[in-house]
Automatic annotation (TrEMBL):
Residues 40-252 form the Solute-binding protein family 3/N-terminal domain. This is Sulfonate transport system substrate-binding protein. Belongs to the bacterial solute-binding protein SsuA/TauA family. The keyword Manganese does not apply. Coiled coil: none annotated. Residues 1-25 form the signal peptide. It comes from the Bacteria. Keywords: Signal. SUPFAM superfamilies: Periplasmic binding protein-like II (SSF53850).
Length: 335
């Protein structure tokens, strides 16, 4: 079945990453000076390299350090790569770090918060489906991207509709597998985000539930502990996060139409739709980085408690244990 294949795929990803981590991890950990010119950051991106693209678009990609971007289907896989030592810094929603730290032995810390849009976070049904709302999914097979925003907002939407998680047949699927399952008829609905939702709509899918008002809009930057031990790597991470904020400010300053072309080329959607989505996203919640504060930690704690309630976490998790303010001073300076 597709959902079983998705779990095998995650394992395969880690198997492939481990040799790479062994080959590259030593150089990253050896860096201890404050000179960023010798730093190479291995950074994660979800769906496509939007961060790299926006930096290039705003002509802010001329970093004094090197950045190697790797694409993953979800933030959960990025955190798996951090745990495996194959990434130095990951960008994700609030959820992946929770599960990456659930064993009590995380090798990373959340170092910054990026406020972002919660649009295109939806539960969709295929063309021709008789289902019109979340309540109509009782007893149905629903695919969802496990340990991500999709997992969280699907659970919350079910509660709002008076349903329990056990009232549906929930199947963990990666975004690409979920789209194939939705179109192939092996699931009745799919909870996902980003490019997969855009593609689903292009293929005729309809929205029956949205996470837009459920999710906080906090997207987290997590860095390996070894990165935080290096002044140069810390400085590079802070600079990279700040550059992305500045790049989006440039986009909002009258350049939405031009950047929409870049988005359309990479997501294979009509230019008009790409521009409409971009404008809506930046209007809803402009992409801006923030330093770590108590409010962000509290927001993630609320999410972790929901997963404990759901039973996805066996025990209570104190999220403060994997947050740090170590990057705050560098990030303030860079911003």
């Amino acid at each position: 079945m597709l959902f079983r294949r998705s779990l095998r795929t995650s394992a395969a990803v880690l198997a492939l990453l481990l040799p790479f981590a062994a080959a590259c991890g030593g150089d990253a950990e050896a860096e201890s000076s404050s000179d960023v010119s010798s730093v190479t950051l291995r950074a994660g991106a979800t769906g496509w390299k939007v961060e790299e693209a926006v930096l290039k678009f705003a002509r802010l990609d001329d970093t004094p350090y090197k950045v190697k971007w790797s694409v993953f289907q979800g933030g959960d896989q990025q955190l798996q790569a951090v745990r495996a030592g194959a990434l130095d810094v990951a960008s994700s929603s609030e959820i992946p770090p929770i599960f990456a730290a659930a064993d009590g032995r995380p090798n990373f810390k959340v170092v910054a918060v990026q406020r972002g849009s919660t649009l295109n976070q939806e539960v969709v049904v295929p063309k021709g489906s008789a289902v019109t709302d979340i309540a109509g999914l009782k007893g149905k097979k629903i695919g969802y991207v496990q340990n991500t925003t999709a997992h969280y907002f699907l659970y919350e939407l079910l509660k709002q509709a008076g349903l329990k998680w056990s009232d549906v047949d929930a199947k963990p699927l990666l975004p690409n597998d979920g789209l194939a399952a939705l179109n192939g008829g092996s699931i009745d609905a799919f909870a996902s985000y980003g490019t997969s939702i855009i593609t689903a709509h292009q293929q005729g899918a309809r929205t029956v539930g949205s996470g837009a008002d459920i999710l906080s809009g906090n997207f987290l930057w997590s860095a390996r502990d070894s990165v935080l031990k290096s002044p140069a790597q810390k400085s590079a991470v802070a600079d990279l996060v700040a550059r992305i904020t500045k790049a989006y400010a440039y986009v909002r300053d009258g350049h939405e139409a031009e950047f929409a072309k870049v988005i359309a080329e990479n997501t294979h959607q009509p230019l008009a739709q790409a521009r409409k989505d971009l404008v809506a996203q930046q209007k809803q919640r402009p992409t801006v980085a923030r330093t770590v504060g108590d409010d962000a930690v509290a927001s993630q704690q609320k999410v972790a408690d929901v997963f404990t309630e759901l039973g996805a976490l066996k025990d209570h998790l104190d999220v403060k244990s994997f947050w740090t303010t170590d990057l705050n001073a560098d990030l303030r300076k860079a911003l």
